Amino acid sequence: MQVVKRTSRDHTLRRIAFGDLFEALHLIEASQGRPGAVNTVFVERLNATLRTWLPALVRRSRHAGSDGERLERHVFLVLAAYNFIRPHRSLRVQVNGRWVDRTPGMAAGVTDHAWTVA
Length: 118
Hints:
Layout (H helix, E strand, L loop, with lengths): L1 E6 L4 E7 L2 H12 L8 H13 L14 H18 L2 E8 L2 E5 L1 H4 L11
Antiparallel strand pairs: 1-2, 3-4
Protein name: Transposase
């Protein structure tokens, strides 16, 4: 899906240039538990995270580059670590008076514990 965002003085216009609007709205509601708007911030945040963790995606880096299959494996590992290994402070919950860290996978109900790389 491609979202085009245009900002003027009075308002911001978002439209889907490629993809199905109803499918996008259904996926937003399914993932967030409530209806939402099509927004570019989620894709921008994902891109920034991937560029931070994968030197091959940075425009100028000391990384020698890699073939597509190797890069695909690296992206998979980064996304697995981001969603299942690394707890996110914004997702923590208070249980019996103490804070419990959670990963996005735990918050979504996919798993009940943080995973390890192994």
